[in-house]
Design brief:
By secondary structure, this protein is of the alpha+beta class. The protein has ten helices and six strands, in the order βαβαββββαααααααα. The protein folds into two domains: 11-127, Glutaredoxin (3-Layer(aba) Sandwich); 133-280, Up-down Bundle (Glutathione S-transferase Yfyf (Class Pi), Chain A, domain 2). The chain binds glutathione. This is GST N-terminal domain-containing protein.
Length: 283
């Protein structure tokens, strides 16, 4: 039997779902295994933060992946490679169950009935939060927007090195983990840039990213109900579509590319981004 989580009181639950926020039994703890800079991991974090669900974060060493290797027994098999799945995000539910692939993780954790939290939902969400339109945006983010970020943050070695500077802030990494990850990780990412661009047929990565941002601002077009820029589905609060787009862009916060993203167009993208960040309320 699946169990619901207790959720702290949140504006997101102030209406129809308030009742469904009561736990039916003690919730199993959630642990997110991630790279700080991974857009797919940021999507999970933003959704959990928005829904006020508590979880632990474990940073994975991008070179050794030892934190994932320790879970080999419960990770699913990567059919193509014939060995355990070695990508992030992974969400541990309790200690025995490992969920993989961001969209499948969220589909498993979030409401199962259309437009609201259903009886099978592990994490209740407000009505209208996780609809087909939201999932379409998620597919676009995963297959287009997030794919464009990598070649943008690795245009030069120095940008790639900057992208890997997050490792210095990971308390669980040793000095050598930090040195190795930043230098080798940055070099490998920088060298892989051309191959990735070829794979996804990207010629001008900055131009393609700006075009993708145009798609977002077009969807935001017009004023929100409470004035200023609105949300993608024109509701009073962000839905999963907003959070999917926002969290992909958030994964590169602090980097050169993010500054260009914030300066895009007439300022409405930045205004929307800050509004979503506030609603998500990262812990
Ligand atoms: N479709 C997967 C994609 C996950 C993915 O590609 N994760 C990257 C990090 S952003 C990864 O772990 N790559 C393997 C590696 O770093 O070796 C999802 O949505 O979770």
């Amino acid at each position: 039997m699946r169990r619901s989580f207790v959720c702290r009181s949140s504006p997101a639950f102030s209406t129809a779902t308030a009742g469904s926020c009561k736990a039916s039994s003690a919730p199993p703890p959630l642990t997110l295994l991630q790279y700080s800079i991974c857009p797919f991991c940021n999507k999970i974090k933003s959704v959990l933060d928005f829904l006020k669900v508590s979880y632990e974060v474990k940073e994975v060493n991008p070179l050794s992946k030892k934190e994932l290797k320790e879970l080999s027994d419960i990770l699913p098999l990567d059919e193509k490679k014939g060995k355990p799945y070695m990508k992030v995000p992974v969400v541990l539910v309790g200690t025995e169950k490992a969920l993989v692939d961001s969209s499948r993780i969220l589909a498993e954790l979030l409401s199962v009935s259309p437009g609201g939290s259903g009886p099978g939902a592990v994490i209740p969400s407000p009505p209208g939060f996780y609809e087909e339109e939201d999932k379409e945006w998620e597919r676009w983010v995963d297959q287009k927007l997030s794919v464009l970020l990598f070649p943008n943050i690795t245009r030069s070695f120095s940008e790639s090195f900057q992208a890997f500077s997050y490792v210095n802030k990971v308390p669980s990494f040793s000095f050598w983990d930090k040195m190795g990850s930043q230098w080798l990780g940055a070099t490998a990412m920088w060298m892989a840039q051309g191959k990735l661009k070829k794979k996804y047929q990207i010629e001008d990565e900055r131009g393609a990213l700006m075009e993708a941002l145009g798609t977002v601002t077009k969807a935001l077009g017009g004023e929100g109900k409470s004035g200023g820029v609105g949300f993608i589905k024109k509701g009073e609060s962000p839905s999963f579509a907003d959070i999917a787009v926002y969290s992909s862009l958030r994964s590169i916060e602090g980097l050169e590319t993010h500054k260009d993203v914030m300066e895009f167009g007439d300022g409405s993208l930045k205004e929307w981004y800050e509004k979503v960040a506030k609603a998500v309320g990262h812990r």
